[in-house]
Amino acid sequence: MTVQNLDKTPSRKQRLQERQRRQLAVVDTVDKAEAKVRKAEVELAAAVTEAVQVFGDEQSASEGLDMSVEAIRRFLRMTRDEAAGDDNAAEVDGTS
């Protein structure tokens, strides 16, 4: 008479499938977080661009925002790149 093991260990295939499932879940979580970060960066870039206009120049905005001039310039480039991307998309769509 054979005794069946009720606490049967998963097969190699089952362990691999579970590992892949966990990896995909982590990748999905990271993708969602990256999308949120990108959205926040775009919003921050727009706010920094407005701050530069309000303060008059990059140096004054840097002092007013307590942010380095390099960071200010990075956000300004981001705004420019975003606008260029929107312009390119409009050209492709034929809406410009």
What does this protein structure show overall?
The chain has 96 residues and is mainly α. The protein starts with 11 loop residues before the first helix and ends with a helix. It is 80% helix and 0% strand. It has helices at residues 12-55, 58-65, 69-93.
In short:
By secondary structure, the protein is mainly α.
Task: Offer a few descriptive terms.
mainly alpha; 3 helices; elongated; 96 residues
Query: Span between N and C termini?
Result: 80 Å
- Rg, Å, rounded: 25 Å
Unreliable spans = none
Number of helical elements: 3
Helix content: over 70%
Beta-strand percentage? under 5%
Please tell me what the overall shape is.
Answer: elongated
Q: What's the count of strands? A: 0
The structure class reads mainly alpha
The overall pLDDT, averaged over residues, is 89
- Note the run of SSEs as H and E: HHH
The description of the largest β-sheet is: none
